[in-house]
Amino acid sequence: MDHPGLRIKATGIDHVVVHVEDVPRARGFYVDLLGMEVARERPGQIFLRCGQQRLALFEGRKAAAGTGRDLNHIAFQVESGSYEEVKESLEAAGIAVTGRKGDPRCIYVRDPDGHQLQILAPRI
After folding, report:
1. 107, 119 in Cβ contact below 8 A?
2. Were both Cys, which of 22, 31, 39, 111 would link to 47 (CB 3.0–4.6 Å)?
3. 79 is a domain residue
4. Is residue 10 part of a domain?
5. What is the CATH number of the domain that holds 93?
6. Other beta carbons within 10 Å of 74
7. H-helix or E-strand spanning residue 20
8. d(Cα 74, Cα 119) in Å, to the nearest integer?
9. Is residue 24 very low, low, confident or very high in pLDDT (cuts 50, 70, 90)?
10. Which region among 7-11, 30-34, 97-101 has the lowest average model confidence (pLDDT)?
11. Do 20 and 113 contact (CB within 8 A), yes or no?
12. Which residue range forms the structural domain that includes residue 77?
């Protein structure tokens, strides 16, 4: 499809917004457990650095756990650790973990608001 005027080319995702019930609780999960860094924070919202991208947690409407209404899942790459090491670390923190048959890198968890996250262990 050809459009006249400025050619726009997206070069990456700046941030993804996820609605959460409790920003401090979500902050603890994403910062303390998943190792993200705070980019900026103000009442009711926080922007976290995850590599070159950012994840924004906005306090808002009550999150409907696992409904998939606002997104299916967010996939995160992790810096180090085997599948078993990453899985054990999450389970030790009380996080329920599932996998995907035939994929030795893929770990699924839910954040405190029920959003599905995919954790991809590094390739060996």
Report:
1. yes
2. 39
3. yes
4. no
5. 3.10.180.10
6. 16
7. strand 15-20
8. 9
9. very high
10. 7-11
11. yes
12. 15-65+72-120
Q: Where are the alpha helices (H) located in the chain, listed in sequence order?
A: 23-27, 83-92
Is residue 68 over pLDDT 90? no
The structure tokens listed for 63 are: 């999150």
Task: Report if residue 113 sits inside a domain.
Answer: yes
Contact 36, 55 (CB under 8 A): yes
Closest CA to 29 of 120, 115, 121, 122: 115
Do residues 41 and 47 make contact, with C-beta atoms less than 8 angstroms apart? yes
89 three-state secondary structure: helix
* 2 located within any domain: no
- Give the whole-number percent of the chain exceeding pLDDT 70: 84
Where b means 16+ CB within 10 Å and e means fewer, 25-44 reads ebbebbeeebebeeeeeeee
| Token pair of 37 as six digits | 């860094």
Lowest mean pLDDT among 13-22, 62-71, 82-91, 97-106: 62-71
**pTM as predicted:** 0.72
Q: What does the block give as tokens for 92?
A: 């030790």
For the chain, how many structural domains are there in total? 1
